Structure to design on (493 residues):
């Protein structure tokens, strides 16, 4: 049994101006053929799950491509077509396959292809024909289109945020594809989009209200003939028609069971919709609160500059706020390649005066400090963490200690704070810090929960601001809750 493995994942924020190019994939993860085995075996990513599934369920994995880039603006047309061509060429080279395991994000946008994932699925389906099964895994933040679901045999999303179940979902996909090929099961899908969006500040599935949905999803999984069930929380910063919440249930042969699962879950989600909105502290309030709380570190999320949601990771809003409130003993990581070069040219131990956050959209901040560390920026994460990646690279990185005992880390490449090794590898002790600023919303909690005394969300401005009234959408459906309170949902529609 030969099963093709394809991974193409990007979360595209249509509200940022930068475009994602091949260079961004090269800087992150772009692997072909057997190289994929070396890079992804043993990881907690769904690609690692596909490969683990190959061992467990005894098939030959036929790796074709894995292309992943840090979330940012939409892909250029050339980049999208280049990756598709590699998929097409790869398929021709490997010959006949019995099935395909396809890892997509579900919120990928390319210039000229708002539904980039749907485009990949339909091209892939026409390439391999209608006979062989394709099992698709998606991020929990997918904006799912009809084309995506229609072109595949089964759709499986991560169930948790932080996304620490990617390996399991990959194994689940592998089990379903093998049983389908052996004709032990015949997966059928039911899918529904709800006219609503759940605010990302409420996506942590370890706390209410999202924990209640996770529990309800697990109840659906207990029902007879149910093979898989998923809730798509959607990605608000992709202005596409499909943006929003969705539900997918897979049953064995029985459409009725799949439909019942979808209706039941959809009704529960719809009833809870107002619990997925919410207020957030202003930047000033969040830093004041962090200073008054006992214990350390207090991890403050810079929600508007969430690298994992496509923001640059160079906003100085919270740094400025900390300096003006007289905070000492803090830590912040900022994407600032120019600052890195400046520090490297001065060398370890030298004093530097830097303007950080130039071109960030926020005010640049002058800092004076000493260069403590220069690193190649590579780090390894052995544990299951949001994103499931083991090998990470934030490019040449420097640590600057300021006169106020604030630690400023400057990186050459953008890096989402999903692994504590991002700072441990630089010799920084997170427990020794009073405040740590992370460029994330809730995804960083898996990395920081062992050391954090408390988490605070800060409603900062930026490319991933949750002040949605500031974003002007052209493509999203209307009415959609919470923008239009007139949105209505009736199950079975
Ligand atoms: Zn996600």
């Amino acid at each position: 049994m030969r099963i093709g493995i394809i991974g193409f994942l990007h979360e595209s924020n249509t509200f940022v101006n930068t475009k994602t190019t091949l260079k961004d994939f090269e800087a992150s993860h772009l692997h072909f053929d057997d190289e994929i085995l070396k890079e992804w075996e043993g990881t907690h990513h769904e690609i690692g799950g596909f490969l683990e599934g190959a061992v467990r369920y005894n098939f030959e994995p036929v790796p074709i491509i894995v292309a992943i880039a840090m979330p940012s603006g939409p892909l250029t047309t050339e980049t999208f077509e280049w990756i598709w061509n590699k998929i097409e060429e790869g398929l021709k080279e490997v010959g006949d396959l019995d099935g395909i395991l396809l890892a997509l994000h579900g919120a990928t946008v390319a210039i000229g292809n708002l539904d980039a994932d749907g485009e990949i699925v339909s091209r892939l389906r026409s390439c391999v024909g209608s006979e062989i099964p394709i099992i698709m895994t998606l991020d929990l933040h997918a904006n799912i289109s009809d084309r995506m679901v229609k072109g595949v045999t089964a759709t499986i999303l991560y169930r948790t945020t932080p996304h620490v179940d990617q390996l399991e979902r990959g194994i689940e996909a592998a089990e379903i594809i093998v049983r389908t090929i052996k004709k032990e099961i015949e997966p059928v899908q039911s899918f529904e989009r709800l006219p609503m969006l759940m605010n990302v500040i409420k996506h942590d599935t370890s706390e209410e209200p999202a924990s209640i949905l996770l529990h309800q999803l697990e109840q659906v999984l207990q029902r007879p003939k149910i093979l898989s069930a998923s809730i798509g929380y959607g990605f608000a910063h992709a202005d596409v028609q499909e943006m929003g919440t969705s539900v997918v249930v897979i049953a064995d042969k029985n459409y009725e069971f799949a439909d019942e699962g979808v209706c039941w879950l959809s009704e529960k989600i719809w009833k809870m919709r107002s619990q997925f909105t919410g207020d957030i502290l202003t930047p000033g309030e969040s830093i004041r609160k962090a200073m008054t709380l006992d214990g350390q570190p207090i991890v403050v999320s810079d929600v508007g500059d969430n690298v994992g949601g496509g923001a640059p990771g160079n906003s100085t809003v919270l740094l400025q706020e900390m300096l003006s409130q007289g905070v000492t003993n803090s830590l912040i990581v900022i994407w600032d390649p120019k600052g890195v070069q400046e520090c490297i040219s001065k060398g370890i131990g030298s004093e530097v005066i830097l303007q950080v956050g130039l071109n960030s959209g926020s005010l640049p901040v002058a800092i004076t400090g000493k260069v403590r560390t220069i690193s190649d920026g590579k780090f390894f994460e052995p544990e299951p963490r949001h994103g499931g990646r083991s090998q990470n690279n934030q490019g040449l990185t420097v640590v600057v200690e300021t006169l106020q005992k604030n630690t400023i880390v400057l990186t050459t490449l953008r890096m989402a704070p999903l692994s504590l090794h991002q700072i441990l590898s630089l010799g920084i002790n997170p427990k020794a810090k009073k405040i740590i600023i992370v460029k994330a919303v809730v995804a960083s909690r898996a990395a920081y929960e062992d050391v954090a005394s408390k988490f605070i969300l800060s409603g900062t401005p930026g490319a991933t601001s949750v002040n949605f009234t500031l974003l002007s959408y052209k493509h999203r459906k209307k009415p959609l809750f919470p923008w239009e309170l007139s949105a209505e949902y009736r199950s079975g529609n």
About this structure: The chain has two domains: 2-276, 283-465. The first helix runs from residue 22 to 27. The pocket of zinc ion is lined by residues 139-141, 163 (CB under 6 Å). The CA atoms of residues 146 and 281 lie 37 Å apart.
